[in-house]
Amino acid sequence: MKKIIISFAVLLLILCGLLFYRASSFFENKQYVVDTPIIPVTVDEQAVLSRFTKAIQIPTISYDDRNHFDQSAFLAFQDYLKENFPLVHEQAELEVINDYSLLYHLKGSDPSLQPALFMGHMDVVPVDEATASQWEQAPFSGKVIDGTIWGRGTIDDKISVVALMESMEMLLEQNIQPKRSIYYAFGHDEEAGGKEGARKIADFLATKNVEFEFVLDEGGVVTQDMLPGITEPVAVIGIAEKGFVNLRLTVNAPGGHSSQPPEHTAAGILAQAIVKVEANPFATDMRFIQDTFNHIGFATDLATRLPMSNLWLFSPAVESMMLKSPSSAASIRTTTAVTMLKGSSKSNILPTEAQAVVNFRILPGDTVDSVTQHITRAIDDTRVNIEAFMTNEASPVSSTESYGYKLIEQTIRRLDQNLLVAPYLVQGGTDASHFYGLSDNVYRFMMVRLNPKTMKRFHGVNEQISVKDYIQAIQFYYAMVEQAAQG
């Protein structure tokens, strides 16, 4: 028995030694080493703020119901861009796509260089009437108070549109002649799926046989206190994004009075189906989290680094921990959300039709068809009709070794070498998803700092950005466009 105990203790010591050795050596510091920092371009702060606040004041709102579309606001935004960025409109070609979306093309001198595409969207989400009174400043005021710019679009996503225009205007003022062609694509309905805007732009470019070296859209940001075990700010670059599908579950049954119900009503059958859907979640997939940690794991605390460097042993525990948080759970599997329910119109009437809508955000690797099949098997009830609508497949995964990714990474670090950089999976949708037919290298990032509190302002109350962040966004886009244009 003593020998067994000693042997067990030795094995335990060896195991502990192996775990701690891997924790200290597994993650390498792969961060780009800055030799030559980027010298910030001179920016007229008051002038750029004045132009940005004017953009915020134009209510270019996207509604799910297109009958509410206000074309005058989008036409006013086009006029605003022409008035405030004259050199861009003099020297770049402009195509107005589907009446409201915009495609700018600044021609390069070297046709052997594939062009670069920079993106943003002009539309914003509506202000919820139920929370309108909670805004500290009017949502379309564009006010600048104590170093903060207020209003819809300050984060999502007029910041990209206007900062990109500022960047090109400054480049043209300096008479910089690009070798590589530069395109800007600004959609008008990203918040409604981008099918009338970005998709139409992509279709137009496809007819011209345009292929891009890389595409850069919104989606990634500089995070603070949003990744476990790390106190340093991390700039996350989106290399892929989830898809989505809605499944409509419908049960039809004879109606009648509730005083004489059948054993199972249509609503009851539907309820059983919903329980089965929620009881059969999709399998987890750690590859995107692992990719992120491969770039920043060296900087995490020991409590995080130990299990992440030894997933061969701790994978079940790590997955269990991540699944407890909705935000981290969404990064490792296709998510399931029952969002809509409908039954009878009166409490004493048996429903002739009961209906539910379940929204799925699809992890790359799953598909609309595989999600539908998974749910069909889980419900396993022919009385429940399953119909997919509003679908978009998950995107391909872009390389972290391409010219485009390296340029984004290096530009971030050269502007602020205190920032760590890592790839990640975008959980929401962007207009960039429509451009994979035109480039394999599609990325998502804007130079804006967000933390768990400010992240809630996306589509929420009191959307705002600091003046410092807006100026930094201009610096980032200027550096990106200038470098890409020079080949």
Keywords:
single chain; 487 residues; alpha/beta; Aminopeptidase; Alpha-Beta Plaits; 2 domains; six-stranded mixed β-sheet; four-stranded mixed β-sheet; 19 strands; globular; carboxypeptidase activity; Bact_exopeptidase_dim_dom
Outline the fold blueprint.
Layout: H1 2-25, H2 45-56, H3 71-84, H4 86-91, E1 93-97, E2 101-106, E3 116-121, E4 144-145, E5 148-150, H5 158-173, E6 182-187, H6 198-207, E7 214-217, E8 222-223, E9 234-241, E10 243-252, E11 256-257, H7 266-278, H8 287-296, H9 302-308, H10 311-323, H11 326-329, E12 335-342, E13 349-350, E14 353-362, H12 368-379, E15 385-392, H13 403-415, E16 420-426, E17 442-444, E18 449-450, H14 452-455, E19 464-466, H15 467-485
Parallel strand pairs: 3-6, 3-7, 7-17, 8-18, 9-16
Antiparallel strand pairs: 1-2, 2-6, 4-5, 5-19, 8-9, 10-14, 10-15, 11-13, 12-14
Helix pairs in contact: 1-9, 2-5, 5-15, 13-15
